[in-house]
């Protein structure tokens, strides 16, 4: 009888310990030795710096501009409607920006 009681008592303690571990484990901060994956995820997107909307070609007003991140760069747009159009074919509009950049000197800013 003592053996059965001791066995049940140990089982209860073990289950309580496992339950406590499962509840508090997510709260324990951990470090990861494979930092490469975390660094890629934590890298911040860089501003593309465009002053002209890649979709409409209009100059971007700082007060009404909209932003959209694509492949690690934040592109500026004259309005949110242009963002939706950009999403349909981002590479096409990025090429438009690059062409303007080549013609005008910098991302949408004309040089004197």
Structural summary, described in words:
This protein is α+β, with helices and mostly antiparallel strands. The protein has four helices and five strands. Helices cover 49% and strands 14% of the residues. β2 and β3 form a beta hairpin. The protein is rod-shaped, with a radius of gyration of 28 Å. The termini are far apart.
Topology:
Layout: H1 2-24, H2 35-42, E1 46-47, E2 66-70, E3 73-77, H3 80-88, H4 90-104, E4 105-106, E5 109-110
Parallel strand pairs: 1-3
Antiparallel strand pairs: 2-3, 4-5
Task: Describe this structure in a few short sentences.
49% of the residues lie in helices and 14% in strands. It is of the alpha+beta class and 112 residues long.
């Amino acid at each position: 009888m003592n053996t059965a009681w001791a066995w049940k008592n140990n089982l209860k303690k073990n289950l309580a310990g496992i339950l406590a571990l499962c509840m508090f484990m997510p709260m324990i901060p951990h470090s990861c030795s494979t930092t490469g994956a975390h660094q890629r995820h934590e890298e911040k997107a860089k501003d593309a710096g465009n002053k002209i909307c890649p979709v409409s070609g209009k100059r971007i007003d700082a007060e009404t501009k909209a932003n959209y991140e694509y492949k690690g760069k934040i592109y500026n747009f004259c309005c949110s409607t242009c963002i939706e159009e950009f999403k349909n074919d981002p590479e096409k509009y990025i090429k438009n920006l690059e062409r303007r950049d080549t013609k005008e000197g910098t991302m949408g800013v004309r040089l004197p």
